[in-house]
Design brief:
By secondary structure, this protein is α+β, with helices and mostly antiparallel strands. The chain has two domains: 68 residues, no CATH class; 98 residues, Endonuclease, Chain A (3-Layer(aba) Sandwich). The chain is built from eight helices and six strands; from the N terminus they run E-E-H-H-H-H-H-E-E-E-H-E-H-H. The strands form two sheets. The chain has a four-stranded mixed β-sheet, with helices on both faces. Strands 1-2 form a two-stranded antiparallel ribbon. A hairpin with a 2-residue loop joins strand 3 and strand 4. Helix 1 runs antiparallel to helix 2. The radius of gyration is 19 Å and the shape is elongated.
């Protein structure tokens, strides 16, 4: 694919490819998980949103990685996440055949990882970086208690559970979904 004028920007006076073009160029060399991570990071940094990428896809033409990028950006399936752990959890949700949750929603003054509004279900995925000391754990308990007082159900899964105990996580999700859907 030729580099068009709209594919170029500059940083400190040095010409570089624009963020959307950079994601397109990388798409053919990244796994699905890495591509999801690149899209999330571009969005977090304010460089390119999923909508920006979708808009440019129509004029991208055939090239390596574009078909995979289209699949990742499918409006019904793509969710912005804050971490690799959250992306791993979404794969388990898909594997379980459950409808996808909202991500990064603010509830009761807290940003939650995953939320199913019809069920009042919140799922938090706890990586070691942000949930390992007593202060952080106490803050998590306070969040859970605030959500419970608002009538919401909260589940927490550790990194180890999401990464290595996938059957347990899926079985727990299915059991809670079944209970809440009654």
């Amino acid at each position: 694919m030729d580099i068009r004028p709209e594919d170029v920007t500059s940083l400190a006076g040095i010409p570089i490819t624009a963020p959307v073009r950079t994601v397109f160029d990388m798409a053919g060399d990244l796994s699905t998980g890495e591509l999801e991570g690149a899209i999330n990071e571009a969005d977090k940094l304010g460089l390119a949103s999923p909508d920006d990428l979708r808009e440019k896809l129509s004029s991208a033409g055939p090239r390596k990685g574009i078909a995979g990028l289209r699949v990742v950006l499918d409006r019904l399936d793509f969710r912005l996440t804050d971490s690799k752990l959250e992306r791993l959890f979404l794969r388990l949700v898909r594997r379980a055949g459950l409808r996808l949750p909202e991500t990064g929603r603010w509830l009761s003054g807290f940003k939650v990882d995953f939320y199913w509004p019809g069920l009042g279900l919140i799922v938090e995925t706890d990586g070691l970086q942000y949930h390992r000391n007593q202060v952080q754990q106490a803050r998590d308990r306070r969040r859970d208690q605030t959500h419970a007082a608002a009538g919401l159900t909260v589940l927490r899964f550790t990194h180890s559970q999401v990464a290595f105990e996938t059957d347990y996580v899926i079985a727990t999700l299915l059991a809670v979904f079944n209970r809440l859907e009654r």
